[in-house]
């Protein structure tokens, strides 16, 4: 199924997204790359929406026809580090390899800099084994800065991370 990339939208999550959220948040192909566990019940998904997604300072649903197929989250730093923020994302495997995640990240970047005017740097850390996520960032205009060896922890495993950045001046 060919997706028109201009039909991709970003919006805040709603409680009514629970069924669509379960499609990707309940899929270990997706959650193996995320810090949170795979959701297994509709109740878990509802609680996740209510307690995590909706109150988050900048988490957007990636939508096609107003149905959530993934997310983008931005985590602003604070204090002396408030000039930067981390970005993360995921989409349903059904939509992998179609440029949708890259288009969604490209769409999000200017909005993030608008919503956080003091922000100078948006950064992403991709698992060195997750080549698809690295491609998403590169296609979205992020610059690869380097490999951080044994830097991150994901589900009990110490992993190498590739760091990418997008500056407000890029």
Structure summarized in a few sentences:
The protein has helices spanning 18-25, 28-31, 42-53, 100-115, 131-139, and strands at 8-12, 59-64, 67-76, 84-91, 121-127, 143-154, 157-167. With 170 residues, it is α+β, with helices and mostly antiparallel strands. Strand 2 (59-64) and strand 3 (67-76) form a beta hairpin.
Description:
The protein is an alpha+beta fold. The chain is 29% helix and 35% strand. The chain has five helices and seven strands; from the N terminus they run βαααβββαβαββ. α4 links the parallel β4 (84-91) and β5. The protein is globular, with a radius of gyration of 15 Å. The model has no long low-confidence stretch (mean pLDDT 93).
Features:
170 residues, 7-stranded mixed sheet, 35% strand, 7 strands, globular, alpha+beta, 5 helices
Helix and strand content put the structural class at alpha+beta
Rg over alpha carbons: 15 Å
| Helical proportion, percent range | 25-40%
Physical arrangement of strands within the biggest beta sheet: 1-2-3-4-5-7-6
Rough outline? globular
Uncertain ranges: none
Q: Would you tell me the overall average pLDDT? A: 93
* Annotation, overall tally of beta strands: 7
Strand portion, in percent?
A: 25-35%
Ordered list of secondary-structure elements with their pairings:
Blueprint: E1 8-12, H1 18-25, H2 28-31, H3 42-53, E2 59-64, E3 67-76, E4 84-91, H4 100-115, E5 121-127, H5 131-139, E6 143-154, E7 157-167
Parallel strand pairs: 4-5
Antiparallel strand pairs: 1-2, 2-3, 3-4, 5-7, 6-7
Helix pairs in contact: 1-3, 4-5
């Amino acid at each position: 199924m060919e997706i028109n990339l201009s039909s991709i939208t970003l919006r805040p999550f709603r409680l009514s997204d629970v069924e669509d959220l379960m499609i990707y948040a309940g899929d270990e192909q997706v959650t193996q790359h995320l810090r949170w566990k795979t959701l297994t019940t509709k109740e878990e998904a509802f609680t996740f929406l209510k307690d995590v997604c909706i109150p988050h300072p900048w988490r957007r649903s990636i939508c096609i026809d107003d149905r959530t197929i993934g997310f983008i989250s931005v985590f602003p730093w604070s204090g002396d580090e408030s000039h930067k923020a981390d970005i993360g994302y995921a989409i349903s495997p059904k939509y992998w390899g179609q440029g949708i995640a890259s288009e969604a990240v490209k769409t999000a970047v200017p909005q993030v800099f608008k919503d956080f005017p003091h922000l100078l740097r948006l950064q992403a850390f991709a698992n060195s084994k997750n080549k698809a996520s690295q491609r998403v960032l590169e296609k979205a205009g992020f610059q690869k800065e380097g490999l951080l060896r044994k830097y991150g922890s994901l589900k009990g495993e110490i992993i190498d991370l590739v760091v990418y950045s997008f500056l407000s001046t890029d």
